[in-house]
Amino acid sequence: MAVYDKGDRVRVTALFKTAGTGVATTATATQKKPSGADTALTVIGGSSTGIYYVDVDLDQVGTHTVKIESTDVVIASETIGLEVGKSVFDHA
Predict the structure, then answer these.
(1) pTM
(2) What would be the CATH architecture of the domain defined by 3-85?
(3) In this predicted model, what pLDDT tens digit does every residue of 63-87 receive, in sequence order?
(4) In 3D, which of 41, 71, 67, 68 has the Cα closest to residue 56?
(5) Are 31 and 65 in contact (CB under 8 A)?
(6) Would you kindly state where each structural domain of the chain is located, as residue ranges?
(7) C-alpha dihedral (34, 27, 17, 45), degrees to nearest 10
(8) What residues contact residue 1 under an 8 Å CB cut-off, 6+ apart?
(9) What is the 3 state secondary structure string of 9-69?
(10) 43-47: long-range contacts, CB 8 A cutoff, minimum separation 24
(11) Residue 5: enclosing H or E segment and its boundaries?
């Protein structure tokens, strides 16, 4: 797993397909921060049908968990963990 710096912005991408073909769907995303707080993220449609992404701001040291899911045309979800390491510049 890659380790990111506090303050990085990371793009997380999801591809929703049915029968091997990307499909337009309604996608939602949630970020769970190391503090335990949940944040709704804005999901953006990509350049091709079925591709969606979110830009995640990593503002705390620890593991940020991001879940992108669809509940209409395709019933699917993906969860990913993003690790932010402590550096000499972090005083908390």
Answers:
(1) 0.87
(2) Sandwich (2.60)
(3) 999 999 998 888 999 999 999 998 8
(4) 41
(5) yes
(6) 3-85
(7) -100
(8) 81, 83
(9) EEEEEEECEECCEECCCCEEEEEECCCCCEEEECCEECCCCCEEEEEEECCCCEEEEEEEE
(10) 43/68, 46/13
(11) strand 3-5
